[in-house]
Amino acid sequence: MKHDDEAHKYYYPVEGRGDGAIGGAAAFLAIILVPAGLYAAWNTVAAWISALFS
């Protein structure tokens, strides 16, 4: 019984591993998509202003 208790400290359930992976993937996508979205938005605004004053 003592052996099982000590082994339990090193056991990580498989279900718990996906939570961090999903968060990591979301952060990775946000790092890529946020600057791309800002760039697209800035180009849209700049084109609108350029067309407005041309």
Describe this structure in words.
Helix content is 81%, strand content 0%. It has helices at 2-8, 17-53. The mean pLDDT is 80. The chain crosses the membrane at residues 21-42. Keywords: Membrane, Transmembrane, Transmembrane helix.
Write the layout of secondary structure elements.
Layout lengths: L1 H7 L8 H37 L1
Keywords: Membrane, Transmembrane, Transmembrane helix
**What characterizes the major β-sheet?**
none
Can you give the mean pLDDT?
80
Please estimate the helix content.
Answer: over 70%
Distance between the termini: 82 Å
- Rg, alpha carbons: 24 Å
- Work out the strand percent: under 5%
Estimate the global geometry from the Cα principal axes.
rod-shaped
Uncertain residue ranges: none
Total beta-strand segments = 0
Structural class designation: mainly alpha
The arrangement of helices and strands along the chain is HH
* DSSP summary: helix tally: 2
